[in-house]
Amino acid sequence: MQKQDETNKKKSNSNSNSTSTSTKIIIGGVVIGIAGFCAYKYFSSKNKTDSLYNLYQGFELKSSQEKYEILKKMGDILTKENDPKKLQQICESETMNKFYKILIENISSFNISLQEIIIDIFLIISKNAQNLNMFIEKQFVDELVQLISEEKMEETESRITEKTARIFGNIIKTTKEIKFANYIQEKGGEKKLMRAFRNGNLQTKSSCAYCLTWFAELLPDVIQKSATIEFMESLFESLKEKEPENLTYSLSLINDCIKQNNTNTMMIFKNGGIEKLMELLSNENIQVQCNTSMILSSFIENDPSFADIFCQKNRVIKIITENFFKRYNGQENNKR
Fold it and tell me: What residues form the membrane-spanning segments (predicted)?
């Protein structure tokens, strides 16, 4: 009996040791796997930074064609990176900062093809980097404002104008830096963007409205003073656009332009603005409805007599009331 107990005990110890060894092997495998994955991530990111550094070396001495190829490779590194954190690290790296300084110092001397690639690179950085301090410089603004085309544009000029407006908008949105908006104003950038809005295609209008909307948050007085009748008319004309995002920015910009500004308010009113705004109150997009209601509210703040006009137009009151109860009932249902 005692021998049987000893045999069972040995078997138990053997099984226990076997289980313990298996567990250790599994844990060891997991640890090695995690370490390997982290190493891969680190070296993958480091390799891309090193690749940027290699591209940066001697860039200024290269020919235009060589510069074009280098910038194209640089753009590929950024566009093909799918990991947002790694992309942010690359965008904020010391090498990218050095590269950026060379690009901004030389952008005006490059041909239009090189300029567009540089703008593409700046656009990627402005979308993905959280630290955009390197862009908060007067020289950067001065150089990019020069690239904004105001009159009828060729295809490449149109794309550069559109992307430049988007870059400015991204930087203002992320940093909320008044100094940056002031640099734009000092160079007459907001006026150029307004003229580009009037003369540009749909994509250009969208990007200019996006930029000017964020600009207006920081310098509302500047937007009101710079808004010409021609700009207001083209802005109002853009309300025919069906895309909710574009409509939202246009409406927000109209509201920024008419706040405490009776001239702009009356211009919209005389051009049949109330009827168009009534249509937009029925838009399916809630943000469009809200921005439209804000404009009507600004009308009344500028001139209380508009309250009587809206009351006479029963449809305005009816739609606003319906929208309110739709949202209220939606919130109540969500609570349940």
Answer: 21-43
The answer to whether 213 and 168 have CB atoms below 8 angstroms apart is no
Only one residue has tokens 């992309």, namely 87
| Per-residue confidence (pLDDT) for residue 41, from 0 to 100 | 42
Q: How far is Cα 127 from Cα 208, in angstroms, rounded to an integer?
A: 16
**What span, in angstroms and rounded, lies between the C-alpha atoms of 232 and 235?**
5
What is the structure's pLDDT at 326? Answer: 58
- Rounded to whole angstroms, the Cα distance separating 135 from 122 reads 9
Pick the last residue of a domain from 204, 226, 248: 226
Based on the fold, state whether residues 173 and 253 are members of the same structural domain: no
Please say whether the beta carbons of 274 and 313 come within 8 A.
yes
Number of domains the chain contains: 2
Same domain, 273 and 314: yes
Residue 1 tokens, joined = 């009996």
Same domain, 246 and 162: no
The closest alpha carbon to 163, from 182, 144, 150, belongs to 144
CB burial of 191-214 (b: ≥16 within 10 Å; e: otherwise) equals: bbbbbbbbbbeebbbbbbbbbbbb
Alpha-carbon gap, residue 282 to 267, rounded angstroms: 23
Query: In 131-228, which residue ranges form alpha helices assigned H by DSSP?
Result: 138-145, 155-175, 178-186, 189-199, 202-218, 220-226
Mean pLDDT by 10 residues, the chain (336 residues): 53 55 54 42 50 74 85 86 85 84 89 92 91 92 95 91 97 96 96 95 93 95 89 86 88 87 73 77 86 85 78 62 54 40
Look at the block and give the residue holding tokens 């593409």.
Answer: 120
Q: What pLDDT does 137 receive?
A: 93
pLDDT computed for residue 8 by the predictor: 55
Helix 286-302 crosses helix 244-258 at what angle (to 10 degrees)? 10
Tell which phi-psi region holds residue 293, choosing left (phi > 0), alpha (psi between -120 and 50) or beta: alpha
